Amino acid sequence: MENWFDAIAWIEQDDRMRDFRQEDMTVEAMTHGMEAEVYKLSSRQQSAVLKLWNRHSRPDVGLQYQLLLMLHEQGLPVSRPLGWGRDPNGASALLTTYDGTELTKVNTATMTRLAHMLSSLHHMQAAPDLKLRLPANDDVNYFFPAIHEHPDLDRALRTVLMTTPVGHGHIIHGDFHIRNILEQDGRFTVIDWTNARLGEAGYDYAWSLLLTRIYISECLATSFRAAYLSAFPLPAEHLEGWEALACLRWVLLHRTGAVPADDRIRARARGILSGNAHLTGYKLEL
Hints:
Oligomer: single chain
Order of helices and strands: HEEEEHEEEHHHHEEEEHHHH
Number of domains: 2
Number of helices: 10
Strand order of the largest sheet: 1-5-6-4-3-2
């Protein structure tokens, strides 16, 4: 693993990268996703996280590196990027600081903190050069891939979009939920910026809210909603529309096996779908 790590051609890097070229570096496999492998690297001085995308996935890792650098410099709780590059096979690699383990315990105070973290991101302005590089179009194809293969979802989506604005005025995370939050010594860090883009803050908030309602509880979702809307007020007349978009995305991902779900989770999701006025009349099968 050490020789393989040294074979990465680093395109941009921090001075602290030197710590990870030592013979005593240890490597520990972490949770792997569908598109990338993740490792914890430890030297005598510090630990870091290496994310290595498979060769079939082509994310703009250079953009992620610059975005993380900007967010870190502006005080947002993100991992500090240490370097990015490509291995001999052309696979992209990103090295960041190690910032703890996945958040597992949540309460009202936790959800309030998370809401303020998300609202802080939405308040942030991207530097002009970075803003030009961030994706800022075709959100339907990006967040609803191959939805045309599901005519019921496609019809519902088109109807919701007729009355629900989807702008591109804010930096959004795209998948803000507790499994993308790390905790270390009481400090929270937001990770996994693969879906970051210029997009609709209302939708980004609604997706986080929906995941909280489905996977945690309605009570804590209420706390998240109140804290976020207090810090980043959104037009009340569009809230349910953005929530409908989030619901449609979840159903699409559920049908393709991309989100975890059991009978209890599906029952919660059905209750949320039936309570959204924008989705009344659509019999969306889970």
